[in-house]
Amino acid sequence: MNEKNKAIGVFDSGVGGLTVVRALTERLPCENIVYFGDTARVPYGVKSRNTIEQFSTQIVHFLLEQNVKLLVIACNTIAAVAGSKVRALAGTMPVIDVIGAGADAAVCATKNGQIGVIATTTTTNSNAYARAIAERKKSCRVVSQACPLLVPIIEEGWLDHAVTRLTLREYLPPLLTENIDTLILGCTHYPLIKPLLAEETQGVALVDSSITTADAVANALAERDLLNEQTTAPDYRFFVSDIPLRFQTIGERFLNRPLEQLEMIALG
Amino acid sequence: MNEKNKAIGVFDSGVGGLTVVRALTERLPCENIVYFGDTARVPYGVKSRNTIEQFSTQIVHFLLEQNVKLLVIACNTIAAVAGSKVRALAGTMPVIDVIGAGADAAVCATKNGQIGVIATTTTTNSNAYARAIAERKKSCRVVSQACPLLVPIIEEGWLDHAVTRLTLREYLPPLLTENIDTLILGCTHYPLIKPLLAEETQGVALVDSSITTADAVANALAERDLLNEQTTAPDYRFFVSDIPLRFQTIGERFLNRPLEQLEMIALG
């Protein structure tokens, strides 16, 4: 198989990574995509590093068997905890992760060097965004806020709801009083409430990790002359380790298109 | 060991069952209690029946080794899906579960025979409360409402918060328009927002599964002459399969006392 025609492999602990797939389909409409969501073992957030590394290894082996040309870690927890493990397994294959892509974009976007991050409790506690930003630009200051309710609210589908707005008014003020001019959406669920976030953070630049990740993938493929030049419709395949309640509904909301070619597969 | 001095074994998929432990310590202050919360594998809600039966079997074996005299299934999902498996493993030992206890109390409480149930999506979809109520009194009508946001809101600690009130005003009206006079709190987390639920369901009798379960345990022990008569302070032991973020804080809120004698143990 021509290297360029191989698929992009995207993985996440569950359904959230589909926002990255959505951004990839818009940014790179000629690329084939294989997605793996570990829905049987989600959430990874509360699991130990060893366990997350072990699960990630299984997923990477599965995607490598699917003949991919690039890997995307579309899960903040995996990126924070098992990023180097995944890179070691991938060898020379490029690996893009949501945290690195978000940090790159935030460092470019900020003018005053004050960057806010909203994320799940685990990602916040890992301090991974602060580390990634410090590696890129020492002068930036990062303030973080854990927002544990946003994922369940988004999965409930309350994307433009009074409850969501009120919840944001609880979570955002500690960041806004720190005079941030840039806010990283540090969870793959959050792009779905971007309009509401924009209203509640007027004037702050929002870094949408799904879009920045798609940009990073486009750059990595162009650099290596690996962009797909096919003119036929691309192939999208979705694998999950379990099909939980409401998966189709939630998945299609995240993906913004019908979720076809969905297969269940057991790992480990 | 004197049979009466043995502990009550209580188990749940996570932290929620601690509300049942709290009700037990208040209703039966002389009883020893052993708790197991499967925090490494929570939530059970999205898992298959086979998996839940297998996990429940491991937990029951563990509790039987702790020399208990009665088992309490303090988890609606386990009660709905693996109740008969647990009873088979327990042999002649009494087994009390939150669904049976809640159904008993609701059938006693209702005057007009219209009973509402709020619960997680899995418990709602299992239809277990409607079945349990039909077994007890055919003339009752049960209307259910899945409230997926309430568990994360309660774990966030927003027990008396505008977000919680607004969320209830979304979930409760479909039940209230059905003219229910009794509402079962069909999730072990919900007793923590009982004051707010009472305000938002004025005149409706609330069936608190933790209290009804403690009553059912008291009756079962009294019937079998197994009530503990010790005058020394009772012994409470808490086992979990993982100690996740914020476990101590959330656990103590549920238990309403310091969470001492906490041990981690791997099952399976």
Main pleated sheet of chain A: 6 strands, parallel
What is the terminal separation of chain A in angstroms? 28 Å
Strand content of chain A: 15-25%
CATH C-level class of the largest domain in chain A = Alpha Beta
CATH topology of the largest domain in chain A: Rossmann fold
Return residue spans of chain A where pLDDT drops below 50 for at least 5 consecutive residues: none
The structural class of chain A is alpha/beta
N-to-C SSE series of chain A? EHEHEHEHEHHEHHHEHEHEHE
The tally of domains of chain A stands at: 2
Q: How do the helices and strands line up, and which of them pair or pack?
A:
Two copies of one chain form a homodimer.
Chain A: E1 7-12, H1 18-27, E2 33-37, H2 49-65, E3 68-73, H3 76-90, E4 95-97, H4 98-109, E5 114-119, H5 121-126, H6 128-136, E6 141-146, H7 150-156, H8 162-171, H9 173-176, E7 182-185, H10 194-200, E8 205-208, H11 209-223, E9 236-240, H12 247-255, E10 262-264
Parallel strand pairs in A: 1-2, 1-3, 2-9, 3-4, 5-6, 5-7, 7-8, 9-10
Helix pairs in contact in A: 1-11, 2-3, 4-6, 4-11
